[in-house]
Design goal:
about 120 residues, alpha+beta, four-stranded antiparallel β-sheet, 3 helices, globular
């Protein structure tokens, strides 16, 4: 049974990335997102996008089963690897906590399926 929607932790992360390191950053982010969703039951959704006219402006929509799931995520080897490798690429990070109103989704195809994750 899915967790009660009141227990979800939902946030938007707004990042500005050094444009000269953008491709490297995007590869590390894609690796981290894939590992988090595949390996962590408490990571319900991670969606990464870039602003169309400012591709160095990255937005992540994150849904965790609970605050405890989010805190556990912060301690995983794949997240710590991502943070270490991208620390000097991230110019700014703003975390925006939100309250769920209506959360529904269908599975998105991954890059191996020719879907989400393609550039362009």
């Amino acid at each position: 049974m899915p967790p009660d929607s009141d227990s979800y932790l939902v946030r938007i992360a707004e990042l500005e990335i050094d444009p000269s390191r953008l491709e490297e950053y995007r590869a590390l982010l894609a690796e981290e997102v894939a590992a988090s969703v595949a390996l962590e039951p408490g990571v319900l959704s991670l969606l990464a996008t870039a602003l169309r006219d400012e591709p160095h402006q990255i937005r992540l929509f994150e849904v965790y089963a609970s605050r405890a799931a989010y805190e556990a995520h912060l301690e995983t080897p794949h997240f710590l690897h991502y943070k270490r490798r991208t620390a000097d690429m991230v110019r700014s990070l703003r975390l925006v906590d939100t309250d769920p109103v209506a959360l529904r989704s269908k599975a998105l195809p991954g890059p191996e399926d020719g879907g989400a994750g393609r550039s362009g």
